[in-house]
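Repro:
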Amino acid sequence: MNMSILYRGFRYPAEIISHVVWLYFRFSLSFRDIEELMAARGIFVTYETVRQWTRKFGQHFANALRRRLPRRSDKWHLDEVVLTIKGKHHYLCRAVDQYGATLDVLVQSRRNRQAAKRFLRKLLKGLRYIPRVLITDKLKSYAAAKSDIMPSVKHRQHKSINNCAEISNQPTRQQERQMRRFKSSCQAQCFLSAHGQINNPFRCHRNRLSATQYYFVRNQAFSLWNELTSVNTIQ
């Protein structure tokens, strides 16, 4: 979809809308936090406006980034974390590559073989390629699902070599605390699916780069964001 069509009917320019959406999905900020940050810059938007913008534009921006970014590595790390929603346990399944970039997420009410198969099918449908290695913890559901869906893929099960996936859940926990827990599985799925894709280009691995390389990669990420959100084309 042409991003310029999405902005039609809004009185604020694309630069402000895209910046607000970026702030919300990039950092652990509440709607009121963003309202105050924008007010400090002389831009007055209500927290309810911020909420509406993130709901309308977040997934569109995330999808655009996912289509544009290069194919990820062929080593996938899978992990799950428990989300408590209205007193009930749900399971957030997350797949990342060996560099920590989020491939996909899926919130489900169960953690069994069928749930694992559903997640693997979603991964394959979205990425359109098969990994070389699949790394998980010792949950038996993944092994059973992989044997049905990707029998030729090498599978390694060990908790200590899956730290990459476990660390990737930390931003989710931070945002969960900021939101005072997710209100529904649908809300969690919508937010986390956009959150992972929007954060991917800005994970520059500062510890592995020189200052010059880091600034270059970060500037590339901002340029890509501005291009995909039509900030450079809409005046």
